[in-house]
Amino acid sequence: MTTEVLRYTAFSGDPAGGNPAGVVLDAAGLDDSAMLGIAAGLGYSETAFLTAPPEGLEGEPGRAFTVRYFSPKAEVPFCGHATVATAVALGERIGPGELVFATRAGTVPVSVTAARDGLLRATLTSVEPHTEEIGAADLAEALAALDWPEADLDPAFPPRIAYAGARHLVLGAGTRARLADLAYDFARLEALMRRLDLITVQLVHRAGPAEFHVRDPFPVGGVVEDPATGAAAAAFGAYARELGLVPDDAVLTLHQGADMGRPGELTVELRAGDPRVRVGGTGVRIA
Description:
This protein is 23% helix and 38% strand. It is globular and about 50 Å long. The protein is α+β, with helices and mostly antiparallel strands. It contains six helices and 17 strands.
């Protein structure tokens, strides 16, 4: 059987920017080992695999799917950039509109719209998020693995584990230079993240009231760093709102990937009265 593997970048209109993802629009007949093999062979941080929706999933016929996400090392419960990439790929084939994805983390609606420049934009709505504190010993181990002195942290951003479909450790960098200087102990950070069931570490520096620079080490996926991380952006939006760092009703801009030479932009929307977080961005096919 020949499986068509598409390549899209998410959170950029430039194929050389954002975060590349694999997309398999018809994964029927692929077992777990086959999906993992495709993801490992492709080498992107995640590849999305679509199959028929589960019975009872609400959504327009032909616009609802089951989606699974595999990194080169393992399956992950949810991936934001691969969701955006998949939604853009579907939008090119069946047109803009509403999509519904059944993921291991829960049901994720996605809206696809056409921008004036002709690019498609996808906005996902996360599952209900939450945050939790991290123990002092675990925080110390994370900082040691990153080789970050505690004095380099931004005290306005208390370390927390945030969830919006996947778990991420949020750490605030006191300066843009601290964020730019990332050289960590891969094996040591991976071991801690596996023990705490973390997908990435969301490193954040505030550039303005609603503007942030972020980076995401991803050793548990077999990738040193993720260029643009939608799931972590959703988790960060929930974190920032819960801690009162941004208003309950806000639109945040996250810049990611510039330090890797793959600049991208993620939009995070918070709505008062709705605990869920919306994350959007453009996407384009990689030739």
